[in-house]
Amino acid sequence: MGDLYKVPAIKLPSVDQLQELSRSLGIQCSVEELEDYREHMKGLTETYDRVSRLEGPSLPVKYPRTPGYRPCPQDNKYNAWYWRCDIKGAESGKLAGKTIAIKDSVAVAGVPMMNGSKILEGYVPEFDATIISRILDAGGRIIGKTNCEDLCLSGSSFTNVTGPILNPNDPTKTSGGSSAGSAVAVATGEADMAIGGDQGGSIRIPSCWCGLAGIKPTFGLVPYTGASSIETTIDHLGPIAKSVKDCALLLEVIAGFDEGRDPRQYPSIQVPEYSKLVTNDIAGKKIGLVKEGFEGCEPDVVSQVQKAALGLRRLGAEVEEMSLPMHSEGVHIWTLITLEGADKCMIQGNGMGYQNKGFYPFSLQEAYARGIKARPQDLSETVKMMILYTGYVSQNYQNRFYAMGQNQNIMLTKAYNKALETYDVLVMPTLPFKASKLPTSKDTRQDRLNLALKMAKNTAPFDITGHPALTVNVGFSQILPIGMMIIGRHFDDVTVLQVGHAAEIAKFLS
């Protein structure tokens, strides 16, 4: 009797529905054709129904937890936290005694997840992202989810629906996005380390403007399984901490192959013990200062980064200026890939996209689908602009420019790889200017849109090429931090970390 009450996965369409669809697609089928097609669809519908009843894979939830609570404003001075919790992992491990904050684009089972946006409000995942299990297995203690930008589509820190995330150095300034809350939680000492996400600089931007270390690892080194995607070819997760050593420690815990659940990865990934390999021994390392990366930067940013880079000579490194003209095109190539790719993956693909092998979290996709349909007017201005522009481009130019961007990215990647045959790492300012003012009621919509992404000229290119890129603090100007970015060869994250650690040491020697 139970089978009589089963609801089919897909309801067979009527001839009228097929006729309307055929008109909208320009196929113009006859009624006789549509009846034949509908008859054949009965078998397809049964197949869809059969597969929908098979047991699917799941991500493990290993450690007990309670849902936690949303912090009140007086306990959330800089609006860094979306949700507070206390999830204790294993009794021992590499992260024993360490408190970890998690960007709210990463799923933690039983803890609300909003990804900075009203469209996901009320969603509670039933699974732990892979990196969450790894952190807990290593003895880490997860103490909350941190606020991020609306669907992570901003490099500033004012589009989160709960309000702006304030910079601890100057609360009138942006703390950077989109992983703003993660950086602020570490900068204020509320967490020892944090997880950020990076599709255009979103680990490195807030790390720079909050005076921290933050690494976007090589693409595919850290599994993205269980996190909300912007665009599958540029998604990265990585550590934010007060020191490069702590970044290295967290990276070695979360990195590694994820059993085929993440299409960004290869089975051959090797994960060394980064924390033991990070020393200040960089004698003989060749460091190239990318001339184009310094162009258009504030004078104090240029001078601080040049001073820090040249200071590495005291530790035995060879430092020289070099030119890489293609770098100036990187952010423009990134724009073509990211805008159109984000619309297809995040909006039309409900936060996960299509055409990739791996694990697809149904509940997160369904939450996206419901939210986008029910509350599109509640999306941030940055996201609305992206949807409108890419909708226009897709309707009138199909995927021509996305394809052009991906093709040009091949050339950009080759240009960096060629430079890295000569140099062990490349160096440039992380961001071209110090933290900017948060917008006020006096700012126009155009002002706000300009503030959202104008800082990413140096960070964004390495999201599409996948090279590891680390920011380290090299000083302050007018009480605001300045960061230096270090870029290395694919899967040579250890050299990037070594040079970053040496830069921290050199700063104290100067």
UniProtKB/TrEMBL annotation:
It comes from the Eukaryota. GO terms for molecular function: catalytic activity. Residues 87-497 form the Amidase domain. Pfam families: Amidase. InterPro entries: Amidase (IPR000120), Amidase_dom (IPR023631), AS_sf (IPR036928). This is Amidase domain-containing protein. It comes from Potamilus streckersoni. The lineage of its organism: Eukaryota, Metazoa, Spiralia, Lophotrochozoa, Mollusca.
